[in-house]
Amino acid sequence: MAEEQRDPREVRAAEGGTRGVRAEEADAWGELVDTARRTVTDGLVVGTSGNVSVRVGDTVLVTPSGVPYDRLAPDDVTGVDLEGRQVLGTLVPTSELPMHLAIYRSTDARAVVHTHAVHATAVSTLVPELPTIHYMAGALGGPVRVAPYATYGTDELAENMLQALADRSACLLQNHGTITYGDTLAQAYDRTAQLDWMCHLWLTARAIPGLTPNLLTEEQLAEAGERLRGYGQRA
Predict the structure, then answer these.
(1) Local structure of 26: helix, strand or coil
(2) How many CA atoms lie within 13 A of 27 on its CB side?
């Protein structure tokens, strides 16, 4: 009797750890862990209150739920397919998996960073959109919107987030935090850091009694965004 054929994804998930993990996935996991630890070091996350993911082919590597980032090791690699079925590792993926998968299904993102950055979270409770205090908003696609509040880990939150992300690479989550995506983990992280910095800047400027911060016009922001697309070294 012929041996029953098993879905390779099921085999990889059952093996757990690094068995069955391709070199590309192992390298991506190492970079993901480094990025997750950096969110803590840079003060964008407290404890495990954030999550990071990176897409390798049709597999999404993601930080596991409730595990401190400094304890993550190569054998803790955690991965799902685009439908959320676990294909790598045995640790439970982050509870915010619906947001990550919604981005990967709807955009060309290769990496996603979600944090509870304090300045950005504060701004999310005050306005429906981050005021255009700095031209770096142009690098995120335009004025950064605030997604209406919904319970964490729900499809409702993921849907609210997608609407706020329309034509943007970042948004604020009301009374919750930030989410950004990019072509690489480094780019997604940098967008998160820039977003929290802009929120800090606006909160600082508006706190000065008797003065109102000057804001950029739509035309000024669009011009800056166009220039930023060609910023940096060319290969």
Answers:
(1) helix
(2) 4
Q: What is the pTM of this model?
A: 0.90
pLDDT in tens, 168-213: 999 999 999 999 999 999 999 999 999 999 999 999 999 999 999 9
Structure tokens at 212: 């109102």
Contacts of 235 (CB under 8 A, 6+ apart): none
For the chain, give the percent of residues with pLDDT over 70: 89
C-alpha pair distances (Å), 192 with each of 8, 162, 172: 35, 17, 10
| Contact residues for 211 (Cβ-Cβ < 8 A; gap 6+) | 205
Q: Write out the catalytic residue numbers.
A: 96
Summarised one tens digit per residue, pLDDT across range 73-124 is: 999 999 999 999 999 999 999 999 999 999 999 999 999 999 999 999 999 9
Bridge partners of 172, per DSSP, are 146, 178
Sheet of strand 177-182, all strands in order from the earlier edge strand to the far edge: 86-88, 79-81, 59-62, 51-56, 111-115, 177-182, 170-173, 146-147
Single-letter amino acid code for the residue at 97:
L
Single-letter code of the amino acid located at 180:
T
Q: What share of the chain is helix, strand, coil (3-state, %, to 5)?
A: 40, 15, 40
Please answer whether residues 211 and 131 qualify as being in contact, where contact means their C-beta atoms are separated by less than 8 angstroms.
Answer: no
CA-derived radius of gyration, the chain: 19
Other beta carbons within 10 Å of 19? 11
The answer for residues whose C-beta is within 8 angstroms of residue 108's C-beta and 6 or more apart is 183
Nearest-angstrom CA–CA distance, 6 and 210: 69
